[in-house]
Amino acid sequence: MIEEKFDAIVVGAGPSGNAAAYTMAKEGLKVLQLERGEYPGSKNVQGAILYADALEKIIPDFREDAPLERHVIEQRLWTMDDTSYVGMHYRSDDFNEERPNRYTIIRAQFDKWFSGKVREAGVVLLCETTVTELLRDTQGRVIGVRTDREGGTAFADVVILGEGVNGLVGQRSGLRPELKPETVALAVKEMHFLPREVIESRFNLKGNEGAVIEAMGTITDGMTGTGFIYTNQESISIGIGCIVSDFAESGRTPYGLLEAFKRHPSVRPLLEGSECKEYAAHLIPEGGYNAMPELFGDGWIVVGDAGQFVNAVHREGSNLAMTTGRVAGETVVWLKRRREVASKANLAEYQRRLEATFVMKDLKKYRRIPDFLHRNKQFFGVYPKLLSAAAQTWFRVDGVDKRAKEKQIFQSFREGRTLPGLIGDALKLARSWR
Amino acid sequence: MMNTTEVGAAPKAPPVKVEERLFQNRYLVDAGRPHIKIKPHAEPSKALMALTHLCPAGCYSLNDKGQVEAVVDGCVECGTCRVLTAKTGEVEWNYPRGGFGVLFKFG
Ligand SMILES: Cc1cc2nc3c(=O)[nH]c(=O)nc-3n(C[C@H](O)[C@H](O)[C@H](O)COP(=O)(O)OP(=O)(O)OC[C@H]3O[C@@H](n4cnc5c(N)ncnc54)[C@H](O)[C@@H]3O)c2cc1C
Ligand code: SF4
């Protein structure tokens, strides 16, 4: 396909691949990037919240021209039953700062913008090109890739795999095991359009302020999963995701679950009168640290979702993708400067550098959480119902005295979950969180 | 093309048709070259059966011979069917050729 040899080939033009390609090209390396979509972003799905910090470390002045929707000033966490939600809302004018911390974005547009920066930095990007396999030399070292283009091979000193969660190249080359239905979530999402004034009045916003909602409870019908509602300028992103093995057992359809979420009495008024313009679905790797595959080998590095870099509890993924991409790029530049080869031993530097960042620290801290949430479905069904009933008992004024109400609430928790169950859950949660 | 309706939906909600949703999306269909194929089978495994409700694009359905069929024109390339049947190997899954398949405008 291309005769010249590159310093690096990057597979994928999502946040991880873009971060890696940009970092290397900025330092003068010759980089080829391959993307299977018609344009970067055409295959990608996200909620989407962008965390400024990770992008700032790559493109400090991104705010000048990135397609940002709204900066988040209000975070709502909802625990829902069929008719209610118990909410924890945090809104602060401090988030109306000069360099806001979180933004909502629309991924297809954001990826296109990021890719523009990558190409400006000198990266050769080929879209509509699917990488089909890794090429190796006689010692097994990765030396390039084969693509589905005619005569489609390309060679480089190192291949960076930013191919996302459903990363066939790495899986089929035996670099990492197959995904497990128990540790990967399927999320479906819709884009609902409304005039911006309507969004602003419904969510109590002005200008480019944004609000985001994360929801859990009976909306996932007993499955491990969550829902989200994010405000964009002229649209609302709404989605719901659950672990694939839970879905398989439940008999539910993902779109049926999303429809029920949209019809919830607390959600419906937010979407009233909107026009849905897209329906998307995507996997999210949620196995965390314990599901992490090998991250590097002779001539290759894996970054982003392909390496399971997602903190599901905090709904962080794109920032881990950008950070791992950047660190991988920096490692390759560092080796190049020292005139060292991209051997497995030398690429261990990638992991060493990652260990020093929030990425590995957070994933390690939460390593027990995915399994915990998968095994303790009461947090998605029983507890939300109990919480809602308790709130209703407490707030309803009906002639029952307050002490009796307290008793009633306590009793309902004991009945719903038994005392040892309650204590056990608290201990388990504390232990997993530690 | 697809005919999947919700099985155990919440009591109030009418059946949900996924076709109405996919209709909003843009696709470049690689005519005659489906990127997903089901291997011939007499009886579908539990995992393959699950896809008749699990596929977010409703691509899988049961035919009158009790076998599972797939029409993948509306596929959003999530990979769920590949992951779920990895053990049984009943689904042959590849990405569409470069440039083909779903085209998200928003994502
Ligand atoms: C519904 C949903 C909501 C989310 N919400 C958030 C959120 O609010 N905030 C957040 O930070 N994260 C969120 N995430 C996670 C986030 O989207 C991912 O962590 C992030 O996109 C990972 O980036 P990546 O570059 O590793 O992979 P991807 O973004 O998946 O990019 C991979 C790229 O590689 C290309 N590719 C794949 N295989 C090949 C091949 N063989 N040849 C050529 N190209 C190939 C793909 O087309 C794609 O462009 C969410 C995810 C989902 C699904
Ligand atoms: S990849 Fe996803 S959308 Fe496509 S057929 Fe499989 S499950 Fe359905």
Automatic annotation (TrEMBL), chain A:
GO terms for molecular function: FAD binding; oxidoreductase activity. The keyword Oxidoreductase applies. Residues 370-434 form the FixC-like C-terminal domain. SUPFAM superfamilies: FAD-linked reductases, C-terminal domain (SSF54373), FAD/NAD(P)-binding domain (SSF51905). InterPro entries: ETF-QO/FixC_UQ-bd (IPR049398), FAD/NAD-bd_sf (IPR036188), FixC-like (IPR039651), FixC-like_C (IPR059103). Its cofactor is FAD. It holds the Pfam family ETF-QO_FixC_C. Residues 206-283 form the ETF-QO/FixC ubiquinone-binding domain. Keywords: FAD, Flavoprotein, Oxidoreductase. PANTHER family: ELECTRON TRANSFER FLAVOPROTEIN-QUINONE OXIDOREDUCTASE YDIS-RELATED. Belongs to the ETF-QO/FixC family. Could be required for the formation of a functional nitrogenase Fe protein. Probably accepts electrons from FixA/FixB and reduces a quinone. This is Protein FixC. It comes from Nitrospirillum amazonense.
TrEMBL record, chain B:
The keyword Iron-sulfur applies. The lineage of its organism: Bacteria, Pseudomonadati, Pseudomonadota, Alphaproteobacteria, Rhodospirillales. Could be a 3Fe-4S cluster-containing protein. The keyword Iron applies. Signal peptide: none annotated. This is Ferredoxin-like protein. Keywords: Electron transport, Iron, Iron-sulfur, Metal-binding, Transport. It comes from Nitrospirillum amazonense. GO terms for molecular function: iron ion binding; iron-sulfur cluster binding.
